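Data deposition worksheet. Section B asks for the primary sequence of the deposited chain exactly as it was used as input, without tags or linkers unless they were present during the calculation. Section C holds the resulting structure in token form. Section D is free text for depositor observations; keep each observation to a single sentence. Incomplete worksheets are returned to the depositor.
Section A, Depositor: J.P.
Section B:
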Amino acid sequence: MGFNLKKKYEEFRSSRWFAPNDVRSFGHRSRAMQMGLDKEDWENKPVIGIINTWSDIQPCHMHFKQRVEDVKKGIYQLGGFPIELPAISLAEIYVKPTTMLYRNMLSMEVEELIRSHPIDGVVLMGGCDKTTPALIMGAISLNLPTIFLPAGPMLRGNYKGKFLGSGSDGWKYWDELRAGNISQKDWEEVETGIARSYGHCMTMGTASTMTAIAEAMGLCLPGASSIPAADSNHIRMSVNVGKRIVEMVWEDLTPRNIITENSVENAVTVAMAMGCSTNAIIHLIAMARRAGVNLTMDDLDKKGRKIPLIANIRPSGKDYLMEDFYYAGGILSLMCSLASQLNLEEITVSGMKLGELIDGKETLNQDIIRPLDEPIYKEGSLAVLKGNLAPDGCVIKPAACDKKFLKHKGPAIVFDSYQDMKKIIDSDELDVTENHVLVLRNVGPVGGPGMPEWGMMPIPKKLLKRGVRDMVRISDARMSGTSYGACILHVAPESYIGGPLSLLETGDIIEINVDLRSINMLVGEKTLLQRKKKVKKNNPKAGRGWLWMYSNHVRQANEGCDFDFLESDFGISAEEPDIF
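Section C:
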């Protein structure tokens, strides 16, 4: 073996199940033989658990049925023994009301799958929005050698010779249909042309953001997060993941060696430079805190002020999609451009330092990956605002909105639920102008529950017909990473638990200033105190099962929406199982 051996077989977790000469291990071995296996299959070999999030209703992971076989091939080639463990598949487009409601469920499932089975190393197969953070959050707690295998973006969409971006162009053409500017036939052509292959969204949505974050944190093979799902390089990468995880087990290279305060900072830097999804804030905080790194909203905002947006990928960028980004050099080229802003000594799953991996990586198209001194936007992707409307913070994506709204003052139109908003938003009777601020509340972590992606509220139809395509919208919900516009999200604390958003009334003036990072309702303190006395305390909406657990234990957006009983340092929450 051509790698650094730090462990002996007797020290492997799996040997606790298979090695002893006792009746319990007799049972383990005999049942393995029941499945047609022989001792030579597992003896003196690392047992690798492959967490596979494939399902029949998960378009982002359609290819995982084959890719898992590619991973197994690599594991066998390096002398390991693979065990495939299916896990819940959070198909963003199908799971209602929102996959965010189940991110923590998947993280708990992953933690227990790893903890309870005889495995020595882990391959995490994911890519769709909440799947990536969930898999990583679960694996962090066990601290076994772990590699994340990203699903890869789908191919570019096509409509009448124009490239289509998933999500972003759906919203765009829906507004044009509502405004009467395109026909039903046009709309149907967009529908059939926007998603042409397996893989996750090829815009810089939450999926592309989170897989890039996983790589920047050190958890992917070099360049893996940029490879389109349908590219043959994705197959080779999957085989190499299988090979490398076997080596990592012998080397005892674990997340504790990889996920540090510095590597988390690298992930934040890369996210800001790429035009990341607003959802990245929530997931980064949750992932970091599982690893014992106390990342805050303020930390993210400081990085956002410092790091320019240099990836010209829609929706924050103007012209390109993930396939173009890959051909321009991908994430390794982007990180090479960012080298002066990164912690280059951090170790990655490759066993090499980040600086070694990105040294000399060439950018093949500088309109797609811009130099630091020629950015798309001079500051990073996200800005955190605070004030009397959001004391614990909220988030906006400045590069993806009309710049005139970065400093704005206007009267609020308040909706207490999505249903209320939906009933009236297209009515000619709605008294609304471009200057108004649409406000949706009671849709946060507890109020949703699960913070559905309702924050990109539709522009009222009467304004669409006048050519208006953006206006200020505020909510305690989230929005899709493929969305855009002057949407202020994740208001914390949320309205449903008595946050200041619950005190706002239609007609109140709201003032925002992104440069000053401020958001305030211009209402006197005395008036707010009077209103507070009238606000009724809400109980969690769910009375049983998972939704009850979620509603009673989820933290607020500024804390990552993890459960209060799951945040921990390495190893504390996941004790090894007893075997008697």
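Section D:
The two ends are 34 Å apart (CA to CA).
Residues 158-191 form one domain.
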